Structures are given as C-alpha cells and as structure tokens.
C-alpha cells in the first residue's frame, strides 16, 4: 500500500481518517487508518458519514477540515522577544516541518493549495515558512469518482479530475475487493516514487474506467456557480439580496474556517507574568468577526450584511483582481458547515437571475 | 515579519493626546521612505500599530512619527520616553506622488491628524518650491487647540510663496480665524486657481476626504490628479492578514495612498 511505502521511507503522511463522525486530515500510522467503506451525505447545513461499498477506499469527498491547517497552521509562533536592561531582543521562531505527504487531496483542494501559494508569495512579499512547508510537501491526489450534493467543482473548473499540481494522482477503479488504482505522476518526485513502486503499466481499460469515474462525479453535481459571478458581485454592492442573506447569516465564521482558501489571520502578542518575555503568534481570523475591521471609533463592517458581502465578494469577485483566479474552488464545505444552511451557489443564482 | 529595533531619541507633545517622537535605528540604517508611507510600530509586549511617517524624507536617519493615543498600542506609543526602545517594520505602502507633479499647482487638504501623513510631501514641496506653480495648505481641526503643528503652520504661512488656510469646526474665546469645514476653505482657494492645473493631496476622516474630492472635482480639478489616504485595520502590513481589504485593494500594499478616481465609487459605499 502506498501509504505504508511513504511511512517506511520516513515521511510523515497526513491523510483522511474517520473521527467524531467526520473525515478529518490527520497523521496516518498505516494505510489501515484510511476510512475505507465510508461515504458522506452532505446537504446545506448537514454532514453525515454512513456505510458505503465496503470495498471502496475513497467514496467520501471533503470533510469539515481542510489541508491549509498543515501548510498554514491555525496558530503559529512568529517570534519571541526578551526584555533586556536597555530594551529588548527579538528572536525569529524557527519551526521544524518534517517532509510530509498530503495523501488523498481532492482536485478542488489541490486548486485551493495552488491558490494559497499565490497568496503567500504575492509578488512583494513571501511567507518564507509557508514556502518551506510547501517545498517539503509531496501531494498525492485522489481523483473523485462521486460528488456530494454540495459539490460544484465542475463550474469552478477545479475538478473532479486534476490534471496538474500533484506529485501522484490516484483514481480508484472498480467496485470489487481487489479493485485497482490508476496511478499517474505529475512531477519528477512523483516519477521517482512510481519507479520505486514498480507498478504494472496501465492499459486502455484502466484509462477508460478512470474516465467513467470522472464522468460519474460530473453527473453527480447539481450545484452550479454562475459564470459571470465576478462581475455580478462587483456591480451589485447594494443589491437587496445582501439584506436577505444577512437575515439568515449568524456571522459565526464557520464558512471561513471550513474554506480551504480563506487565509485571513490575526496576530496576538502573548506575555508571561513577569512581562519580560513576549511572543507573537499568528492565528486564523475571519472577516465575520466584529474585531476584524476595527479601527479607532469602531468596526468598519458593523452589520452582518456588510460582512457577508465582504466574504462572498472577496471570494468570488475581488479575488480575481488580487490573485488572478477565483478564491472559490467549489468544494461545498461552506454550504454543508453553515449552521443555517446558506448555499453560496443559491445566493449567487439570485444575482444572476436578477441580471437577466 | 520581524521588527527592527529603534531607540527613542526625543519625544515632544503635540496636543493633549498626541505625541511626536524621533527614532534612531539600532539594527542597521533606517531605510529610505516616501511621503505618505507608514511603519508598524511595536512597543515591547503591547502590539503593533500602523503609524504614518511624518518627518523629512531627505533625512531618513531622523525617523519621526506623530501618534494619537486611541487604543492600547497607540497609548503605549504616546507613553514612550527618551531612551525607550521600539520595534519598527516598514516602510510600507504607496506614497503621495508629489515628485511627479512638477509645474502644477499643489493643494494639500488635511483634516485633523491627516496632517502628519501629508507633512513629508509638504516638506518636499516647500524644499522644491520653484518646481511647482503654486502651493496651498489647508488644515481643518475641531477647535483652535487641536490644530496640528501650529508653529509650522505659522512658519509656512510666513513664506511669501505659500498659502496656508486654517479653519476650525468650533471656535474658542480668542480665536479670530475661520470657522467651518475644510471644504469652505477649499472652495475659496480653488476659486482663484486654474483648476485643470491643480494636483491635490487629501488626508483626513473618510467623510472629509469624500467631500473635499467632490469640491475639487466640482471646481474642475481632474479626478486623476487627486489623491487620498485610506485607513483600515492592519495586522501584517504585507498583504497576508487580509484585514485591510478595501474592495479589491489591500490598503497596506495597494494603499494607503490611492488616486481618487480608482476608489471614487467605493468612497460612497457604507461599511465596505
């Protein structure tokens, strides 16, 4: 098994596991940790794991967590400072990130990692710790063979089949106990692993079966993002739909934490009791909090309406201006993990419909 | 994201809650800055605040900031005394393109503590006065005792080649100057100018910048010859934290100085 190959080779392998009724991305001890036979039922505001075909390894899609927590940790120390007799000294925090395999990254999440790359290497500044983590990361993608009802990767053009960005990509073929995987390499590092594994070369029937799996995941998708959402949102900051969604939105920030591309962060200075030692920590933040836009005199975005507008407009519209792509990859996490079941594609559809 | 250390070499009060300080670098020379840029200032153990640089850019070794005590960090900054150490990251952001406006009539409009971010550009215009057709500085404050840099305003006014117009929202006993919003002064000043040849730099509260820009445009100043400086919450100042987003722009990186026509539509939107 591929997972065991990496572990034996000294890699830390992060992959899907079942925990607390959900698929999470945590270190694997062996391939046996993979949540084989499970399937996820996702609806707006709902996520349930149930039993699926016991022979299938990867029939669930995306869980509530996402891979950014490994590449861009939810809390990270930036530096520490010590008081001295004439001031203070500052010491940069050196972290040790082991060489890591992200195993089972779905095509949408692979696109999300690509987006984070452009955020943390923005032309003017580079997050060197992020870059180092990326350089030490080997990505094994699993191509999707089914979709949840919340998935809309086809309309975001991020899936269900990844063509690049991975080191290795697996497609699960067949329904039986000894079902095969199509393994494709996407990088020189991937080539090396493929050579070491010494797999038999795929035949036409394998490629055909992979194609069928992809088609299945396309056919499963019922959610759709309007094509011109970028301009629709840019041109409608005062659309009445913002009031409508604000009446439902709890401003709870779940969508931003579940989102694989939301990158906003806060910094916090933590002192010890003596006041002589202090540390600066960076942690995930959300544009749905009141403190997020605080300047002297109060928050710029006081209303839920303005916060939802900021989040959705940034994600689907101004992200293009900032980074050249949409900030949405169509993973559907924000739909499933919204406690009131707000569906970003349904909200977008209102803007599109009113434009007609 | 690591601050460089500076020593506070001099502090002086400006207003009740406003203090200026001069910093000298300890970890290598102070980098060159442009007018309108800002630094992240770190008083030990408290946190960072974005504060504009308000000194002379031809003398970057004397790093000067003017700060109002508003929150925890800015209060710690105004409480600094000579000999204290602070951390600095920067300079960050876009700048007032004063050097590109040669041959034009320059108008500065500063509301309250909007004057310190403009002062490096004002210094440049004063030092290179012959490069410009005209120079007008308009400063509005709440009351006569909250005028910023009053001695310098008087000094600038005493030059024969510079117009300085000061106004307050509320007069106090003994005040013989103007009372009213800055746009009143601005409209009066613009009446005597060839508006097409005016380049304007506006800094102050958002509503003041919006109305000043409207006055400038109504008088005929080209919308691409007006610049304003925006303020938003900032944590990193390098485009990572996302807090300072203003529509598609990061105020830390794409701002704080924006050409008016690029953000005119947003300036009219609430809670953007």
Short description:
With about 350 residues, chain A is α+β, with helices and mostly antiparallel strands. Chain A has 13 helices and 14 strands. Chain A has helices at about 1-10, 70, 105-120, 130-135, 155, 190-195, 205-220, 230-235, 240-250, 255-260, 305-325, 335, 345-355, and strands at about 10-20, 20-25, 40-45, 45-50, 75-85, 85-90, 100-105, 135-140, 170, 180-185, 265-270, 275-285, 295, 300.
CATH class of the largest domain in chain B: Alpha Beta
Count the beta strands of chain A: 14
Roughly how much helix do the residues of chain A carry, as a percent range?
Answer: 25-40%
What is the straight-line distance between the termini of chain A? 52 Å
- Helix- and strand-based class of chain B? alpha/beta
Walk me through what this model shows.
The complex is a heterodimer of chains A (356) and B (272). Chain A has 356 residues and is of the alpha+beta class. Chain A has two domains: 2-74 and 95-219, no CATH class; 229-264 and 287-355, no CATH class. In chain A, 33% of the residues lie in helices and 23% in strands. Chain A is built from 13 helices and 14 strands. Chain A has helices spanning 2-8, 68-71, 107-120, 128-135, 153-156, 188-197, 204-219, 229-234, 241-248, 254-258, 304-323, 333-336, 344-355; strands at 12-19, 22-27, 38-43, 46-51, 75-84, 87-92, 100-105, 137-142, 168-172, 181-185, 265-271, 277-284, 294-295, 298-299. Chain A has a six-stranded mixed sheet, with helices on both faces. A four-stranded antiparallel sheet of chain A has the order 6-5-12-11, with no helix packed on it. The longest helix of chain A has 20 residues, at 304-323. Chain A is globular and about 65 Å long. The N and C termini of chain A lie far apart (52 Å). Chain B has two domains: 4-92, Translation factors (Elongation Factor Tu (Ef-tu), domain 3), CATH 2.40.30.10; 98-267, Rossmann fold (3-Layer(aba) Sandwich). By secondary structure, chain B is an alpha/beta fold. In chain B, helix 4 runs parallel beside helix 5 (206-219). The longest helix of chain B has 14 residues, at 206-219. In chain B, strands 10-9-8-7-11-12-15 form a seven-stranded mixed sheet, with helices on both faces. Chain B has a six-stranded antiparallel sheet with strand order 4-3-6-1-2-5. Chain B has a two-stranded antiparallel ribbon with strand order 13-14. The two termini of chain B are 27 Å apart. Chain B is globular, with a radius of gyration of 18 Å. In chain B, a hairpin with a 2-residue loop joins strand 1 (4-15) and strand 2 (18-25). Chain A binds chain B through residues 78-79, 81, 83, 86-88, 90, 92, 119-120, 122, 124-125, 127, 237-238, 263-267, 269, 271, 275, 278, 280, 282, 285, 287, 292-296, 300-303, 305-306, 310, 314, 317-318, 321-322, and chain B through 1-3, 5, 7, 26, 44-48, 70-71, 74, 83-85, 87, 231-233, 235-236, 238-243, 245, 247-248, 250, 253, 269-272.
């Amino acid at each position: 098994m591929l997972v065991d190959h990496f572990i034996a080779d000294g890699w830390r392998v992060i992959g899907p596991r079942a925990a607390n009724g959900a698929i999470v991305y945590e270190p694997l001890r062996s391939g046996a940790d993979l949540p084989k036979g499970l399937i996820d039922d996702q609806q707006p505001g709902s996520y349930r794991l149930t039993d699926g075909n016991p022979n299938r390894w990867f029939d669930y899609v995306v869980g509530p967590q996402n891979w950014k927590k490994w590449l861009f940790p939810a809390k990270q120390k930036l530096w520490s400072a010590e008081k001295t007799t004439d001031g203070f000294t500052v010491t940069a925090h050196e972290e040790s990130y082991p060489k890591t395999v992200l195993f089972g990254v779905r095509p949408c999440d692979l696109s999300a990692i690509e987006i984070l790359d452009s955020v943390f290497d923005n032309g003017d500044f580079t997050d060197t710790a992020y870059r180092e983590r990326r350089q030490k990361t080997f990505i094994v993608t699993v191509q999707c063979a089914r979709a949840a009802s919340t998935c809309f990767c086809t309309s975001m053009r991020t899936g269900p089949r990844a063509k690049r960005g991975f080191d290795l990509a697996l497609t699960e073929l067949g329904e039986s106990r000894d079902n095969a995987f199509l393994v494709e390499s996407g990088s020189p590092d991937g080539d090396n692993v493929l050579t070491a594994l010494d797999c038999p070369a795929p035949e036409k029937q394998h490629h055909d079966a992979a194609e069928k799996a992809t088609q299945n995941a396309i056919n499963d998708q019922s959610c759709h993002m309007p094509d011109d959402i970028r301009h629709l949102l840019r041109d409608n900051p005062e659309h009445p739909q913002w009031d409508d969604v604000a009446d439902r939105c709890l401003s709870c920030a779940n969508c931003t934490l579940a989102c694989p591309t939301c990158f906003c962060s806060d910094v916090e200075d933590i002192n010890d009791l003596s006041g002589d030692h202090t540390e600066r920590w960076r942690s995930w933040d959300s544009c749905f909090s009141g403190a997020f836009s605080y300047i002297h005199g109060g928050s710029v975005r006081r209303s839920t309406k303005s916060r939802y507008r900021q989040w959705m407009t940034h994600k689907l519209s101004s992200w293009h201006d900032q980074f050249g792509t949409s900030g949405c990859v169509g993973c559907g996490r924000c739909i499933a993990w919204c406690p009131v079941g707000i569906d970003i594609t349904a909200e977008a559809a209102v803007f599109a419909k009113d434009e007609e | 994201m690591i601050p460089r250390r500076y020593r506070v070499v001099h502090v002086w009060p400006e207003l009740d809650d406003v203090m200026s300080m001069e910093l000298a670098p300890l970890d290598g020379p102070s980098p060159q800055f442009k007018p309108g840029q800002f630094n992240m200032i770190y008083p030990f153990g408290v946190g960072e605040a974005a504060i504009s640089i308000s000194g002379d850019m031809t003398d970057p070794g004397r790093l000067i900031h003017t700060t109002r005590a508003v929150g925890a960090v800015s209060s710690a900054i105004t409480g600094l005394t000579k000999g204290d150490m602070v951390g600095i990251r920067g300079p960050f952001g876009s700048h007032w393109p004063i050097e590109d406006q040669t041959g034009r009539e320059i108008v500065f409009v500063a509301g309250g503590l909007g004057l310190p971010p403009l002062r490096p550009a004002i210094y440049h215009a004063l030092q290179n006065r012959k490069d410009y057709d005209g120079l007008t500085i308009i400063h509005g404050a709440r009351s006569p005792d909250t005028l910023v840099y009053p001695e310098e305003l008087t000094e600038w006014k005493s030059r024969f080649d510079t117009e300085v117009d000061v106004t307050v929202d509320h007069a106090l006993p003994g005040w013989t100057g103007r009372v009213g919003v800055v746009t009143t002064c601005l409209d009066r000043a613009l009446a005597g100018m060839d508006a097409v040849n005016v380049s304007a730099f506006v800094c102050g509260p958002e509503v003041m910048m919006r109305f000043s820009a409207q006055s400038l445009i109504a008088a005929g100043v080209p919308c691409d010859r007006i610049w304003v400086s925006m303020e938003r919450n900032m944590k990193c100042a390098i485009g990572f934290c996302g807090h300072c987003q203003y529509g598609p722009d990061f105020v830390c990186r794409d701002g704080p100085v924006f050409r008016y026509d690029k953000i005119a539509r947003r300036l009219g939107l609430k809670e953007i």
